[in-house]
């Protein structure tokens, strides 16, 4: 909020674009999950929650905490970001962690899109099981208005 | 140090194993880089540095900061961990970030090994370049005595 | 062939669905490239070409050969497939190869979609460069009518 | 065999190096599996088998067919290769396919090593399950004498 009322920024029309692609807010993934990201700290860090969406139909996942950081959106048009989700699972002691690594793009209509690749590790019971511990995929997030 | 002198732990021989696989300390990767990890906070967070090693011969990379967390090493034999490195590059404004996701294993000789997969993103200039922004690989770290 | 002439199947309109998700034909990727796949052999093998599309604007890539195979589309609703593209590049001797691994899905409207993850290797000059040789990503293909 | 007895090659000591890194033969992976690769065809194609090794202790996997190709080992010192394994599993109808993409390196002692990244897809039952279908990892193979 104080960003928007800052005297410097209110004088600079060119910063309107730069104020986009801040990860703060609510996002929906292409698999129907929701993500809520806190206000960013001065150095770009954030925390938040990853929630199963209505479309997911997967009640196994509970609301799970995430932490990450993003590159300064006032300095670059397509800031990169990274965050880690520690999954909270119903009826399971298995440790699952996902590392997301991505970049925010703004379309010609001003719509922000997060493009991310992720690695998901399910804790292996032994070194001999390590080879199959990691999945890979992509996620695309759009802002929930 | 206070862990080792704690009265509870000094009474419990079975915790000797559990005290391994704390990421704090110095590690060498299979590509000859070094990593120094801080003492872990109570909730498992750490910071540190990633350094090009003598074997790397790659002066492009400067000492780069890392941040991450690990699962409680006193509760599980092979704790998982994740950390993010924001690369500092000589003569380059390119933003490069690596997300490591892995697990610590202890050999029969007590030697700790970190097995990790990583994603490395080099910031894309535009959405059309996004498809080729991400590399993938594995790293194995052993503790530097 | 005997499937198609089987009395049971010839009476069953529901097998029309099963005949979908044969990879033969022309496809467009979400990055604007085109792919042309030959008629499949009896054991599911195919060859074809990968072409830069009009949307790609990347004249570096020339029409490149591909080879692969798919699981029997008449036996499963979402057959898996794999194929390899050996890239032909203008003004470059670099060897680049992509391995695609995916699955075909049919929407409620009958539209076929190919979901694939890929690894792209650019030949490393030496073992010391091997760690950065491989990129990862996803592609989605839809059939060109 | 006729390569080795070819008059041209027997006159040219410099080609001794070039004859290495042909994938034909038997290999052991760092996870204890064995791989047997056929003589390469003139255009670099090969077939073969992937076998669970004695160290694997995983009787779930049966000997599984593989097919692939490699870059001409007589033209480049570190030829790239790719191959696909269609897994044969005991007591399972699940379709699993792995795409390997890698490069062969020759050490100073003449020992050949294959460095590969792979994607392993387990067929998803529906598009909603597709996001978690793919695992990623690395394999290192050394030749069995």
CATH topology of chain A: Lipocalin
Instruction: Report the biggest beta sheet of chain A as strand number plus sense, adding barrel if it closes.
Output: 8 strands, antiparallel, barrel
Number of helices of chain A: 2
Cα-based radius of gyration of chain A, to the nearest Å: 17 Å
Kindly, what is the distance between the CA atoms of the first and last residues of chain A, rounded to a whole number of angstroms?
Answer: 17 Å
Strand numbers in spatial order across the main sheet of chain A:
1-2-3-5-6-8-9-10
Protein name (chains A, B, C, D): Avidin
Organism (chains A, B, C, D): Buteo japonicus
Function (chains A, B, C, D): Forms a strong non-covalent specific complex with biotin.
Keywords (chains A, B, C, D): Biotin, Disulfide bond, Glycoprotein, Secreted, Signal
Overview of this structure, please?
4 copies of one chain form a homotetramer. The first copy, chain A, has 145 residues and is mainly β. Chain A has a single domain (21-143), classed as Beta Barrel (Lipocalin). Chain A has 2 helices and 10 strands; from the N terminus they run ααββββββββββ. In chain A, the strands form 2 sheets. In chain A, strands 1-2-3-5-6-8-9-10 form an 8-stranded antiparallel barrel. A two-stranded antiparallel ribbon of chain A has the order 4-7. In chain A, a hairpin with a 4-residue loop joins β1 and β2. Chain A is globular. Chain A starts with 6 loop residues before the first helix and ends with a strand. The interface between A and D is medium-sized, with 12 and 12 residues. Chains A, B, C, D: Keywords: Biotin, Disulfide bond, Glycoprotein, Secreted, Signal.
């Amino acid at each position: 909020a104080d960003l928007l009322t800052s005297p410097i920024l209110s004088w600079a029309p060119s910063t309107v674009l730069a104020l986009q692609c801040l990860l703060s807010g609510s996002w929906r993934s292409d698999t129907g999950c929701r993500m809520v990201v806190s206000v960013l700290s001065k150095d770009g860090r954030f925390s938040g929650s990853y929630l199963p969406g209505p479309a997911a139909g997967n009640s196994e996942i509970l609301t799970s905490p995430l932490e990450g950081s993003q590159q300064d959106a006032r300095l670059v048009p397509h800031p990169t970001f990274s965050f880690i989700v520690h999954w909270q699972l119903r009826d399971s002691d298995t440790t699952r962690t996902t590392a997301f690594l991505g970049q925010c793009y703004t379309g010609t209509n001003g719509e922000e899109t997060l493009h991310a690749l992720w690695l998901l590790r399910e804790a292996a019971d032994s070194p001999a099981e390590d080879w199959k511990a990691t999945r890979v995929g992509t996620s695309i997030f759009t802002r929930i208005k």
